Automatic annotation (TrEMBL):
Domain of life of the organism encoding this protein: Bacteria
PANTHER family: GLYOXALASE DOMAIN-CONTAINING PROTEIN 5, GLYOXALASE FAMILY PROTEIN
Protein name (Swiss-Prot/TrEMBL): VOC family protein
Domain spans labelled VOC: 6-132
Coiled coil: none
Gene3D superfamilies per UniProt: 2,3-Dihydroxybiphenyl 1,2-Dioxygenase, domain 1
Length: 133
Protein backbone atom coordinates (compact mmCIF):
# COMPACT_ATOMS: atom_id res chain seq x y z
CA UNK A 1 0.00 0.00 0.00
CA UNK A 2 1.29 3.45 -0.93
CA UNK A 3 1.96 5.76 2.02
CA UNK A 4 3.02 9.37 1.60
CA UNK A 5 5.44 10.64 4.26
CA UNK A 6 6.53 14.11 3.08
CA UNK A 7 6.27 16.81 0.43
CA UNK A 8 9.42 17.27 -1.65
CA UNK A 9 8.45 20.47 -3.44
CA UNK A 10 5.47 22.49 -4.60
CA UNK A 11 5.00 24.75 -7.61
CA UNK A 12 3.51 28.23 -7.50
CA UNK A 13 2.17 29.68 -10.72
CA UNK A 14 3.27 33.33 -10.66
CA UNK A 15 2.72 36.39 -12.83
CA UNK A 16 6.29 37.62 -12.43
CA UNK A 17 9.07 35.31 -11.25
CA UNK A 18 11.40 38.17 -10.27
CA UNK A 19 8.78 39.95 -8.17
CA UNK A 20 7.79 36.73 -6.41
CA UNK A 21 11.39 35.64 -5.81
CA UNK A 22 12.28 39.02 -4.28
CA UNK A 23 9.20 38.88 -2.02
CA UNK A 24 9.94 35.36 -0.75
CA UNK A 25 13.58 36.31 -0.13
CA UNK A 26 12.88 39.62 1.63
CA UNK A 27 9.69 38.80 3.51
CA UNK A 28 10.01 35.09 4.32
CA UNK A 29 13.81 34.75 4.30
CA UNK A 30 13.88 32.00 1.67
CA UNK A 31 16.92 31.31 -0.50
CA UNK A 32 16.76 31.70 -4.26
CA UNK A 33 18.25 29.14 -6.65
CA UNK A 34 18.37 29.62 -10.43
CA UNK A 35 19.08 26.63 -12.68
CA UNK A 36 18.36 25.46 -16.22
CA UNK A 37 15.98 22.60 -16.97
CA UNK A 38 16.97 19.62 -19.10
CA UNK A 39 15.63 21.63 -22.05
CA UNK A 40 17.65 24.72 -21.13
CA UNK A 41 14.68 26.67 -19.73
CA UNK A 42 15.41 28.91 -16.74
CA UNK A 43 13.97 27.72 -13.43
CA UNK A 44 13.77 29.68 -10.19
CA UNK A 45 13.24 27.94 -6.87
CA UNK A 46 12.89 29.22 -3.33
CA UNK A 47 14.32 26.93 -0.65
CA UNK A 48 13.81 26.87 3.11
CA UNK A 49 14.72 24.09 5.50
CA UNK A 50 14.37 20.85 3.54
CA UNK A 51 11.67 22.27 1.27
CA UNK A 52 11.44 23.95 -2.10
CA UNK A 53 8.93 26.06 -4.01
CA UNK A 54 9.39 26.25 -7.78
CA UNK A 55 8.19 29.54 -9.27
CA UNK A 56 6.51 28.78 -12.59
CA UNK A 57 5.71 31.73 -14.89
CA UNK A 58 1.98 31.66 -15.62
CA UNK A 59 2.65 32.20 -19.32
CA UNK A 60 4.84 29.08 -19.65
CA UNK A 61 3.40 26.50 -22.02
CA UNK A 62 2.82 22.85 -21.11
CA UNK A 63 5.72 21.97 -23.41
CA UNK A 64 8.06 24.30 -21.51
CA UNK A 65 6.81 23.44 -18.02
CA UNK A 66 4.70 20.33 -17.41
CA UNK A 67 2.03 21.34 -14.87
CA UNK A 68 -1.62 21.10 -13.86
CA UNK A 69 -4.43 21.45 -16.39
CA UNK A 70 -5.57 24.92 -15.32
CA UNK A 71 -2.59 26.84 -13.93
CA UNK A 72 -3.46 30.18 -12.40
CA UNK A 73 -1.69 32.65 -10.17
CA UNK A 74 -3.00 33.45 -6.70
CA UNK A 75 -4.85 30.24 -5.94
CA UNK A 76 -2.57 28.83 -3.25
CA UNK A 77 -3.17 28.83 0.49
CA UNK A 78 -0.16 27.66 2.47
CA UNK A 79 0.96 27.54 6.07
CA UNK A 80 4.64 27.94 6.89
CA UNK A 81 6.07 27.23 10.35
CA UNK A 82 8.49 29.45 12.26
CA UNK A 83 10.05 29.44 15.69
CA UNK A 84 9.36 33.18 16.10
CA UNK A 85 6.50 34.31 18.31
CA UNK A 86 3.33 35.43 16.51
CA UNK A 87 3.90 39.00 17.72
CA UNK A 88 7.42 38.96 16.25
CA UNK A 89 6.03 37.62 12.96
CA UNK A 90 3.45 40.41 12.83
CA UNK A 91 6.13 43.01 13.64
CA UNK A 92 8.34 41.62 10.87
CA UNK A 93 5.52 41.91 8.33
CA UNK A 94 4.83 45.48 9.41
CA UNK A 95 8.54 46.31 9.05
CA UNK A 96 8.42 44.87 5.51
CA UNK A 97 5.32 46.98 4.71
CA UNK A 98 3.28 43.82 4.18
CA UNK A 99 -0.40 44.14 5.07
CA UNK A 100 -1.61 41.64 7.66
CA UNK A 101 -4.88 40.02 6.56
CA UNK A 102 -5.57 38.40 9.96
CA UNK A 103 -3.84 37.48 13.17
CA UNK A 104 -2.24 36.61 15.31
CA UNK A 105 -5.02 34.07 15.75
CA UNK A 106 -5.08 30.52 17.13
CA UNK A 107 -5.91 27.78 14.60
CA UNK A 108 -5.65 23.99 14.39
CA UNK A 109 -2.43 22.77 12.81
CA UNK A 110 -1.42 19.25 11.79
CA UNK A 111 0.09 18.64 15.26
CA UNK A 112 -2.24 20.70 17.42
CA UNK A 113 -2.96 24.37 18.16
CA UNK A 114 -0.92 26.93 16.23
CA UNK A 115 -0.90 30.71 16.33
CA UNK A 116 -0.98 32.23 12.85
CA UNK A 117 -0.50 35.51 11.03
CA UNK A 118 -1.93 35.77 7.50
CA UNK A 119 -0.59 37.87 4.62
CA UNK A 120 -0.75 37.76 0.82
CA UNK A 121 2.17 37.40 -1.58
CA UNK A 122 2.44 39.49 -4.78
CA UNK A 123 0.06 37.15 -6.64
CA UNK A 124 -2.55 37.15 -3.88
CA UNK A 125 -1.75 33.70 -2.49
CA UNK A 126 -2.79 33.43 1.16
CA UNK A 127 0.36 32.91 3.21
CA UNK A 128 -0.05 31.78 6.82
CA UNK A 129 3.01 31.96 9.08
CA UNK A 130 2.50 30.03 12.28
CA UNK A 131 4.17 28.77 15.41
CA UNK A 132 3.06 25.94 17.64
CA UNK A 133 1.90 27.21 21.01
Amino acid sequence: MLTINAIDHIVFNVRDVETSARWYEAVLGMNRTDVRSDRGEPRTSMTFGQNKINLRPIDASQERWFTGRAPSAGGQDLCFLTSLSPDAVAAHFRNCDVDIEAGPVTKKGARGPICSVYVRDPDGNLIEVSSYT
